[in-house]
C-alpha cells in the first residue's frame, strides 16, 4: 500500500511538461514526489507511455517503456520516440492524448495540446513553409499566419542583464495613444523611444538589438506576449536543447522580476502591462519596476 500511495501522489501537473522537439521525437519531463511530498531523488522507475488517438479513452497508436533513474531533483527526462518509431503518426489528422504509467500504476491521461509542430510540418512535406519552433530569421518562430509564410519571431535570449530592466527612464508621464496598441508592438516601440527626455528603456534594448543581420526587433505588446506564452513549451524546449550556450528558453522562476516579461502596452501615465510566464497571467507594473525583456520581429 505504501508503494501505491506514493505513486498516486505523483503530480499530474507533470503531464503538461511536453515540448516540441525534432526530428521524430519529443520530450516529456515530470517531477516525482512521494505521498508526503518528498522528492523521489535518485530512484529507479519504469515509465510506460501510450499515445491515444481521438480521446482520453481512444485507440492506442503508440507505446514504449523507459527504465531510468530520477535526478537528484526528482526529475525524469524522456525523449518519446527514442525507443519505438513515432514517425507514422499523422499529427494533423486527429487529437492525441498521452497516458502515463509509473511502476505499474496509471498516473493519468492528458491531451497533447502542444503537438510536435516540427513533426507535423515534416509529415506535411513542408520544406519551404515555416512551423512553430523553427529557428529562423535570427530567432524562433512563435506565430504563423494563415499563409504559412509570415508570422512572428522571438529573440533567442532575454536582453536584460539577468535581473530585469526598467520599462523606461521616464515615469509619471503618459506617452498616449502611440503606445496603446494591443496587437502590434512595433508602433508602441517607436512611440516609447520617441518620447521627449527618453534615454533608455526596454523598448530601446529591443530596437538596438541585432542578430544574424536582422535589426528590426521591437518590444512585444500584450497579445504578442500572450502568443509567446501559448507556445512557451515549444520555445523553451527548442532553445534549451539546441546545443547553443548563447540561446535561452523563457525563464520561469516563480518570483518577480524573474518570470515577469515587459510588454510595450502603456496603461496610463505610470503603468505598463506585463505577463507572468509562470502562470499565464498579466497585470500592471510601474515604469520604474524591473521585468524581463524578450525582443520580437515580423517575417
Topology of this protein?
Elements: H1 2-8, E1 18-19, E2 26-31, E3 44-53, E4 59-69, E5 75-80, E6 96-102, E7 105-111, H2 117-123, E8 135-136, E9 139-144, E10 151-154, E11 165-166, H3 185-193, H4 202-208, H5 222-230, H6 232-240, E12 260-267, E13 271-276, E14 281-286, E15 290-291, E16 296-298
Antiparallel strand pairs: 1-2, 2-5, 3-4, 3-6, 6-7, 8-9, 9-10, 10-16, 11-15, 12-13, 13-14
Helix pairs in contact: 3-4
Question: In this structure, how is the largest beta sheet organized?
Answer: 4 strands, antiparallel
Strand content: 25-35%
**Helix content, binned percent:** 10-25%
Q: Give the overall shape.
A: elongated
Q: Write down how many β-strands occur, each being a DSSP E stretch of 2 or more residues.
A: 16
Q: Span between N and C termini?
A: 57 Å
Radius of gyration: 21 Å
> Stretches where pLDDT falls below 50 for ≥5 residues?
1-23
What is the typical, i.e. mean, pLDDT? 80
Return the string of H and E elements.
HEEEEEEEHEEEEHHHHEEEEE
Number of domains: 2
- For the biggest β-sheet, the strand order reads 4-3-6-7
Per DSSP, the total helix count is 6
Q: How would you classify the helix and strand content by structural class?
A: alpha+beta
Model description:
The protein is an alpha+beta fold and 299 residues long. The protein has two domains: 121 residues, Purple acid phosphatase-like, N-terminal (Immunoglobulin-like, Sandwich), CATH 2.60.40; 163 residues, no CATH class. It is 16% helix and 29% strand. The longest helix is centred in the middle third of the chain and has 9 residues.
Amino acid at each position: 500500500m505504501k508503494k501505491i500511495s506514493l505513486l498516486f501522489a505523483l503530480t499530474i501537473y507533470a503531464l503538461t511538461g511536453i515540448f516540441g522537439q525534432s526530428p521524430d521525437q519529443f520530450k516529456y519531463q515530470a517531477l516525482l514526489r512521494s505521498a508526503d511530498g518528498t522528492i523521489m531523488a535518485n530512484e529507479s522507475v519504469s515509465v510506460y507511455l501510450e499515445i491515444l488517438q481521438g480521446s482520453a479513452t481512444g485507440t492506442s497508436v503508440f507505446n514504449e517503456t523507459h527504465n531510468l533513474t530520477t535526478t537528484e531533483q526528482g526529475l525524469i527526462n524522456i525523449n518519446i520516440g527514442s525507443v519505438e518509431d513515432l514517425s507514422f503518426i499523422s499529427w494533423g489528422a486527429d487529437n492525441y492524448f498521452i497516458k502515463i504509467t509509473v511502476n505499474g500504476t496509471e498516473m493519468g491521461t492528458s491531451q497533447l495540446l502542444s503537438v510536435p509542430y516540427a513533426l507535423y510540418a515534416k509529415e506535411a512535406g513542408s520544406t519551404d513553409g515555416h512551423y512553430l519552433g523553427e529557428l529562423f530569421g535570427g530567432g524562433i518562430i512563435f506565430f504563423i499566419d494563415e499563409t504559412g509564410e509570415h508570422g512572428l519571431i522571438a529573440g533567442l535570449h532575454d536582453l536584460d542583464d539577468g535581473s530585469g530592466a526598467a520599462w523606461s527612464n521616464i515615469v509619471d508621464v503618459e506617452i498616449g495613444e502611440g503606445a496603446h496598441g494591443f496587437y502590434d508592438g512595433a508602433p508602441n516601440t517607436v512611440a516609447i523611444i520617441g518620447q521627449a527626455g527618453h534615454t533608455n528603456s526596454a523598448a530601446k534594448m529591443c530596437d538596438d538589438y541585432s542578430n544574424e543581420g536582422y535589426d528590426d526587433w521591437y518590444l512585444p505588446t500584450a497579445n504578442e506576449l500572450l502568443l509567446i506564452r501559448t507556445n512557451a513549451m515549444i520555445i523553451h524546449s527548442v532553445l534549451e536543447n539546441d546545443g547553443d550556450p548563447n540561446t535561452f528558453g523563457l525563464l520561469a522562476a516563480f518570483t518577480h522580476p524573474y518570470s515577469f516579461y515587459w510588454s510595450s502596452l502603456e496603461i496610463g501615465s505610470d503603468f505598463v502591462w506585463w505577463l507572468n510566464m509562470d502562470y499565464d497571467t498579466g497585470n500592471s507594473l510601474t515604469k520604474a519596476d524591473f521585468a524581463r525583456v524578450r525582443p520580437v520581429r515580423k517575417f
